[in-house]
Amino acid sequence: RTMRDLVFLASVVLTVYARVSFPYSEVLQASDLAGTEKVNFKCKNACRVYVDKPSDHHIITRHGNVITDFNTIVSGNVFAPAGFNLPPDDYVLENVGDMGLDFVLYIVDRTAPHFGSSVYVPQQNLGVAIKDRARFVTILSSFEAMWFSGFTGTFPEGFPRIYATGFDAAGDDMCNPVFQARSQHHAEKSWPTIPTAVLTVDFGFIGAHNVTVNRRKAKQPMKNGAVTTVYTSPGYVGCLFNSGQNYNSPVSNVEDSFAVISESLDINIVYDSLNANEALHFRVNDNNYNWAGGTYTSFSKYFGAGSFDVDLAWTRNTISSSWALQLDFGVEQPAAQTTTARSLSATPQITTQSVSLGTEYTKSTKRGDWSTTSTSRRSYTLFSAIVLVCIFA
Ligand SMILES: *[C@@H]1O[C@H](CO)[C@@H](O)[C@H](O)[C@H]1NC(C)=O
Questions:
Q1: So which residues are the signal peptide here (predicted)?
Q2: Is the CB of 210 under 6 A from ligand 1?
Q3: Ligand 1 mean position to 359 CA, how many Å?
Q4: Ligand 1 mean position to 131 CA, how many Å?
């Protein structure tokens, strides 16, 4: 490639994505380095940085001095990056030689709400089974989408919720959750697939609860037998204070169609800045919707029992548009499940694995050194992974 091609490509990438900033945090991705391989950021009151990929070619400098790199930030456990503390100052993130690396760097101020919540990173062939007592857990990922399964716990009404933000903005009134369980049953019988780089689960309470998170293709939303299905524009953020900002995503369109017999169907959508040429097409039987425009505009619709033929199609045409759609199928009593038999095209049998993380593991004060609270367990063993075989076909 000629230099001119590279400059052109870089400028295209630059105009397509912009960094995503929250009141207490920022998220930087490879696209934010495009062109110069450098990007400045500020730590106001000191901050902690987390990243989803190790690399010694991605460094953070301060006044020209190397402070840390992605290897150090990940520090030993790729599934649960230790993070790295930076004193208040101006910093530069620099790529010094790994052009192909996609990453998500989460920079969060120490005064942020829920500071110190755990951060997890599912890997290519191994997800994380989170067994935590904390109310919030954050997941970083450069994969197309994250897939949540196995929610267990005694959830308060309206929980768990999943926000497309770090822990600092999760639960903020200004941010719209991507997934919100209507009931205990909805929580246990939903497996949301969400195509976005940063996600935080708000379990709604401090206490024993589990969830498993695996990498997944964006175009494989889990529907068979699920009572809640969510769809979002790839890279969705969902907060009023940074409206128009989206995470970088390798995916630019969303499409699905299925048929289902259910006791009810609830549609809940929030959409923002959808250009006329990128309206979200959504159809339930003879009801056609083409949502466009919007300023975090919401729309809800309830359908009583019936058979539902559903279509959904969207392609991104502008950098700032976003939407999130939740479909809840009516099965308030578990017994009603049999009536939600889906005549969907069969979801392929999925075999995923997860390494358990959470309360069994405690961070020792020595960075990168993990010890367990349970003496019968090795501190960190890939091969003690729980193998989840999920058959939804
Ligand atoms: C979490 O999973 C473990 C098994 O790994 C189980 O023993 C525990 O009961 C689960 N917690 C809840 C709240 O269901």
A1: 1-18
A2: yes
A3: 11
A4: 7
